[in-house]
Amino acid sequence: MPRRVLTPKRELEGREAEDATLDLAPLAQIVAARYVSSGDLIPVLQSAQRQFGYLPDEVVTEIARLTGLPASRVYGVVTFYAQFSTTPSGRHKIRVCQGTACHVRGGHGVLRAVESELGIKAGTTGDDLEHTLETVACLGACSLAPVMTVDSQYFGKLTGAKVAAALEQIGGDGDESDDD
Ligand code: FES
Predict the structure, then answer these.
(1) What are the residue boundaries of the structural domains of the chain, listed by start?
(2) Is the pTM value of this prediction over 0.85?
(3) CATH class belonging to 92-168
(4) How far apart are alpha carbons 34 and 115 in whole angstroms?
(5) Average pLDDT for residues 139-159, to the nearest whole number?
(6) Ligand 1 pocket, residue 145 CB under 6 Å
(7) Residue 147 near ligand 1, beta carbon < 6 Å
């Protein structure tokens, strides 16, 4: 069953409206401050992504125009590096480890439980832009397998019940629950 939406509707509508009328003006400043040669493209893209939250077509096209680089080259860099996203991310990013240590301790079941709780599949963002769900190969906390992160918080030794409890904390001020 999909989880409740934690973002106030007014705020969500504001974000959608913001996306619909993307103000590209900051890109001129970003490019002017950071771009000298093609080797500076990645820092420009990083700044642009910080500014807009992701790199939609109009941002990529405008960066190409401002830098004089072919749009195909800018797109090539954007799509090559995992750090860049061409689609909007949710307000909360959930990463579920599917590495070996987590896999043998039930990581797949954890992923299914998270998908069920959030009502979205791995690799997608909910329509309400509240959650983005990703899988990763290792979160560097194998001793706590199976592990997931919710934004910057780690949750380990997960069970279905712990997944539900961890996701309940989104937007709250609860402690990390990486103990047993
Ligand atoms: S394999 Fe999951 S944290 Fe390392």
Answers:
(1) 9-80, 92-168
(2) no
(3) alpha beta
(4) 40
(5) 95
(6) yes
(7) yes
